[in-house]
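Sorry, any thoughts here?
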Amino acid sequence: MKTILTILLPTLLTHASITFSQELTAEQESKAAFGINRCLGHETGEPDLFIWNHENLRIAKNTLQTSSSAKLEKSHKALLKRADRALTEGPYSVVFKTSVPPSGSKHDYYSIAPYWWPDPNNKSGLPYVRRDGERNPESKSSASDRVPLNHLSSNVSTLALAAYFSDDNRYAKKASELIRVWFLDKKTRMNPNLNFAQAIPGKTTGRSVGIIDTYDLVQIVDSINILVYLGQLSSIENEVLKQWFTEYTLWLITSDIGKEERRRSNNHGLYYDVQVAIFSAFADDFRALRAMIESIKRYRIPGHINRKGQMPHELKRTRSFHYTSYTLRGFLDAADLGECVGEDLWNFKTKRGVGIKLAIDYQADFAGKLGTWKFKEIGSFNTKSFYSNLLRAEDAFGDGEYEKKARHYKQANNDSLSRLLYPKTLLR
């Protein structure tokens, strides 16, 4: 069977700004081997991880077991509380929705565009009209798979981490059950495509922007690896899951919808690249992962971040602060993935001096003074992602200024999972 990279390469080369050789130089091979050691060459008795960090999880677990750290305990208790609730929820499946996609198969994922509403000027309400930043409740209805997918992602990651930190197999067994129902059981599994995501009634049965829905699967990858490590998913099940993600990645690369999403210049294009990157890595295709990191270096960073560190595509939105934080998360995930192939995206700069750190610093400068944010933000400022990004930045750069800025939002986020994922920031 063709590798993901073999299919991906012609698509990459359609961007004039991207050059990538299928044959790696000896130096690149060495770097790749070093990077793979970062993700897969961990200590014996630890799970494979791509975005979550072995050392950080080990430090958090050891701290919780050997001392009463108030800085981590509240987050740990909140995690276990959410995990206990998750034990009673689900399972989730695409076949449980009340609607039937245009294909006629409930195994195909279907969702409704969140920011599109019935046209008040037409009795039928069709076609729907756009109201950016205002979420239509219909997009969260039982007719759509969007909410179940979000719950799947949240509960699986919560349960997997709770099992890892507590050594309570009840959590791992439940998470594995959720995985089997969504991906493995022939009666309930999702087909590996997104042909009908973010449909707009009266306009289209599915759109390329719907691919961002499956960014929820990114944290499921590391969760699966923890469940395999804990012995709750078998090696055979793991191989079937890898095949599912291979097939989905090939759909992302070869479908017209996927190709259209890849051409987008806002957060959608970035989140496409990160999905292909981590799903390729999970499927053991590290060359495809390297190709996507190269794409982010040569195309996403210079195309998305200006010399001030602003992300103009996101600043145009009605929730500009939210989308700045949201897009930064994608860049931080990419930087973690870059380490898997020896690439330092954290400190990478273009010839114009543009890089991820510049974008982090731009938003970080507003910590403690969000009232000076001059771009549109309907509703109140939600600091959850902002707080997490600051802790991740401090973890990556070892710069205490980020942690100082995060303190402004500590009280509102002191049960944040990020405190367990990036504990060195708080324990220094």
